């Protein structure tokens, strides 16, 4: 046995032979612009993490931990495309591990992986498009409030919540939703291919399922957690390298100083500016409600 082989068996020092490396990126939360105290998942925020995750030359794969009820289809597509571009450039397999939910845009992100794994209680699917709002014209009429709205262009305002619903506005919205839905379906078909089982009428209905049913439909490749699956694939000496943003005290609060941090759209918090902090709290409450509403649609 060579000296190098003997040194590699030592449990310490630079000679120790390290195990296989897999970088891990966590994709958590509603997809899209968030608020000052809770940032959403956007390409601008996630791209630096993905670049770092795919950077090591000696690693075996990249793992994504997905926990998202969905959100912006545009940001979903942009993040998924960046993952695929990096995977093809670095010639690395990508594994997605779904936690509470990988639904709607969250499932779009999971489809960027070569394999999708989940817990048997994870919520998956929701391959559809949703838009919601309120009709408040009756309320303001009862309180004697007059709505004044002036436009140039008869379709400039089609879905004003303070005006009666317009049939052409609803038709226009449904056409937009159909276009986005087709893009979503094309993404799932291209990534899952022959692994999909069952009629498309069910798969693409917007319905969602728990892990075992999702596995039977071919939406995922197996049930399991990140450590168990990757150790089974790459061995017991597997090293998981978690890639995450470095956060100071203010950034943990979702705020930033007058210096640009490059993370999110939080307003500057400067001395003598309590208004900024108040606005941050209001925006945080709104973001939390958006997150709650998205998860509530999944029964979470």
From TrEMBL:
The keyword Hydrolase applies. Residues 88-230 form the Peptidase S49 domain. Transmembrane segments: none annotated. Belongs to the peptidase S49 family. The lineage of its organism: Bacteria, Pseudomonadati, Pseudomonadota, Alphaproteobacteria, Rhodospirillales. It comes from the Bacteria. PANTHER family: PEPTIDASE S49, PROTEINASE. This is S49 family peptidase. Keywords: Hydrolase, Protease, Serine protease. It holds the Pfam family Peptidase_S49. It comes from Azospirillum endophyticum. The keyword Acyltransferase does not apply. InterPro entries: ClpP/crotonase-like_dom_sf, Peptidase_S49, S49_SppA_C.
